Amino acid sequence: MIHRRDLLVGGIVFLATLGARAAVDEAKTIGPCVYDWTKVSPRKTEVGEVRFFFRGPTKTLEELEVHVTTLDPGKASHPPHKHPNEEMVIIREGTVEALVDGEWKRVGPGSVIFNASNVLHGLRNVGDAPATYHVINWKSDRIPKE
């Protein structure tokens, strides 16, 4: 037989578990922060290098990711592809071509590229010097299925 005391203890344990879970989830959420460029070490890749700043949930997004890629001259980040999430690319230095709506478009420093959901896109360094760009990639509850 279940007693009222057993229900009370069970309820307290249940609420404590929910509270602990919320605290863990909150701890993993990206909050206000500053990332110093000079303290984010680059990692060599086959096509240049990459600096990973952060990747994780925020209060309004399932995931927010920021990294910076530097492409060697004549290199592409990867073959043209598509994915359900959206992303923005901001060119820091160099000259690149971006595949946008089926057409390669040449852009330079300060340019912004928006890669829409499930649309084929790509990026390649067409200059004679390294090209560096910031990638801001996000996922929300509104992402369509592939």
Kindly report the CATH topology of the largest domain: Jelly Rolls
- Which percent range describes the beta-strand content? 35-45%
> Which architecture of the largest domain per CATH?
Sandwich
Helix/strand/pairing category: alpha+beta
Shape: globular
End-to-end distance: 51 Å
Q: What fraction, in percent, of the residue positions are helical?
A: 10-25%
Tally of alpha and pi helices: 1
Unreliable segments of 5+ consecutive residues: 18-25
In the CATH scheme, the class of the largest domain would be Mainly Beta
Estimate nothing, just give the exact number of structural domains.
2
Strand order of the largest sheet: 1-2-3-9-4-7
Extended strand count: 9
Give a short account of the largest sheet: 6 strands, antiparallel
- How large is the radius of gyration? 22 Å
